[in-house]
Design goal:
With 341 residues, this protein is an alpha/beta fold. It has helices at residues 15-37, 40-46, 52-73, 111-125, 150-158, 172-182, 206-215, 259-267, 283-291, 311-326, 333-340; strands at 2-4, 76-78, 82-89, 91-97, 130-136, 140-147, 191-197, 219-224, 231-232, 234-237, 240-244, 254-255, 273-275, 296-303, 307-308.
């Protein structure tokens, strides 16, 4: 297979016709000026060594060097090959709460966006660990199956919004169960789950699910998104906030961080609980805990980058530029003899 790494640079080749047009225009202007000053026969006697052919020859060599140089810096690349790369890592599932309470703005710009930023931060830390994403509210589903493709993870992460799940609630236990089903327990890799939520759990199964995960050797860490004081849940229509969620009695609903729930889930599996803030997401601390886990070799088949071939063009371009400099602007005896023969 063949490609240019920087194909947009090839548009510079369009400058070549303009160089020839410019040279032609300069030549014609010069001839007209000389014709008004000196007679043609007298000019040939005054400047016997002048050579217009040499100017065109030098331009030909220069444009060929220019074209070769552009092709070189565009970096032609040929082929790709597969190779087996051994990596050490763990399997990590992120369970992200996308219930409406995550729209509360006690974290800037809101809990959900702050959570997504913290996940992007984690992806920046990871090197060879496998990662998957589960989103949950009243229900849970796998947003991203476990993978080493961090670019895909970032792409899926950008598309996460509260509208992905219509069933409201915060069923952390269901999310943990789904994370567990996403793991390959035939693989010897260490396994961990990171729950990112405000902790307003409405189901009884969360602690039980954490204990069952711990029994299978899975560590659960939790990050609390929100504040103890809480904040109202905004309601949006057409991308604009039109008010706040209210109870049946007409009172504004305030959602608060349930630190105790999230701490209990983490403690059940010897994990850690971290409370996020506007200044610190806590993800660096979670990553440090993940790094302490035992890592095993993961055999992964990956595709290497295309092989660069720019060097085969840059050297000829340099030689052509040197030749262009060597070619004299005037007639030379050896040149006359060459073309006379």
């Amino acid at each position: 297979m063949f490609r240019f790494e920087h194909p947009y640079l090839l548009y510079l080749l369009l400058l070549i016709p303009f160089l020839w047009i410019l040279q032609f225009w300069i030549t014609q202007v010069r001839k007209k000026k000389l014709a008004t000053i000196i007679d043609k026969d007298l000019r040939s006697r005054l400047i016997p060594m002048a050579s217009s052919a040499k100017a065109w020859l030098k331009l030909s060599v220069y444009t060929l060097a220019f074209a070769t140089l552009i092709l070189g810096i565009a970096n032609p690349q040929f082929g790709s090959k597969t190779e087996e790369v051994k990596r050490k890592g763990i399997d990590l599932m992120i369970a992200l709460d996308i219930s409406n309470s995550m729209l509360a703005e006690d974290l800037s710009p809101n809990r959900l966006k702050r959570s997504k930023r913290s996940m992007e931060e984690l992806l920046g830390y990871l090197k060879s660990d496998r990662i998957g994403i589960v989103v949950f509210a009243g229900e849970a589903f796998v947003q991203l199956p476990i993978t080493t493709d961090y670019s895909a993870a970032k792409l899926f992460l950008r598309n996460i919004e509260t509208e992905l799940i219509t069933t409201q609630g915060t069923d952390i236990g269901n999310a943990i169960d789904l994370c567990m089903r996403s793991f390959d327990f035939d693989s010897p890799t260490s396994k961990a789950i990171v729950v990112i939520s405000d902790g307003e759990n409405h189901e009884e199964s969360s602690l039980k699910a954490a204990e069952e995960a711990a029994a299978q050797g899975v560590v659960i860490h939790s990050i609390g998104m929100g504040s103890a004081e809480g904040a109202p849940i905004p309601i949006y229509q057409g991308g604009k906030r039109v008010g706040f969620k209210k109870s049946k009695e007409g009172n504004t609903v305030v959602t608060k961080l349930d630190e105790q729930m999230l701490a209990e889930i983490a403690n059940a599996s010897d994990g850690v609980f971290v409370r996020a803030s506007n200044g610190e997401s806590g993800m660096r601390f979670i990553f440090d805990e993940v790094e302490r886990m035992e890592k095993v070799e993961i055999g992964t088949r990956v595709y290497t980058d295309y092989e660069d071939r720019f060097q085969y063009l840059l050297l000829p371009a340099l030689l052509l530029l040197i030749i262009e400099l060597i070619i004299p602007n005037t007639r030379t005896p050896w040149w006359e003899k060459l073309f006379a023969s």
